[in-house]
Amino acid sequence: MSYSSSRDFLKRLREIIAKTNNIVIMTHARGDVDAVASSIGMTFMLKALGAKNITILFPEGVTLEARKLISYVDIADANILFVKKQDTCYSRMLTDSTCIVLDTADSNQLRAVQDGISLCRYVVVVDHHAHGDMARRANLVLIDKNSSSTSELILELLRTLNGTLSYNSTVLECLLAGVLSDSRRFLHNVSPRTFELVSWALTKGAKYSKALELLRTEVPPSARIAKLKCLARACIMKIDTLYLCISHVGAYEADCANSLIALGCDAAFVFSEDKSAKAVRLVFRSNTEFLNKFGSVYESVIRSILKELGGSAGGHEQAGGALLKIRKVEEGVHVLISVLKKALGTELVPLKEHRVCGDNTW
Ligand SMILES: [Mn+2]
Asked: Is the pTM for the entire model greater than 0.85?
């Protein structure tokens, strides 16, 4: 069962809500803009359908960006709970409830709430990811991996209800923000329906400028400083026509790697010491040029590093991370460089441009 039409889905959803008193909406851990927007949209829709006692669970809280959405809309009657890693109090709440799982392909993304899923009377899934185990565990699903976002699917449900409810422009603006965020401002996974639904939301009173504003977040000073340090410490190497950058930071390693790619590095490796895990974290990113020339960084580089240093890793061909069983960044850099030389089969030529401010080379 992968995709049910929104009309059938709504029909079944109504039947399910009629049979349960409590509804618990939940999303993947550290809910992002799409996860939070779709929770808000779903809550609004369920209330319009007459549902009461709605609780939203956000395992491990939500991202800074997504937090803005929660303070923007008025979903006062819904209980919003942030579930900490060690919380267990939710299990009572889930027992015999209708659990609506949004933007989550696999139950392990629910973290602390994961084990509670078996207590739900009905499990409903709305998602746009390729299948994890959630689809199998659900009584009712609306899954469309061609959809830009879960927010797009909620917009589609709201449009299907056209005429039967009065729309709330702030809720629609959140859903637009969800579509914009997951499609990276209409760069990925968009279809004619995406634009139709955006257009529909705008005719129902949503302001596009508001949706954009919801996505604007102030970068905390610590993130800014981390990125600048990342840049100052970057060691840049040339391989043929491509540039490979290595750096280290105390935190925000993913932001650092993304910034290096945005600046023009074809591949970026960023280390950080994770004191609590007594390990070193390594985040990598690469662009398509690098992938075409040298293949998957994950396969060719990360696996070899793991073999040598031990640890665990996850990711795709062009982006991912590893937790290495070492304590010092230097050790990781050393192994990375030797692995890179072997994997790429070529010399790495350092770009010697380091200057100290104030020296007389300027
Ligand atoms: Mn999503």
From this structure: no
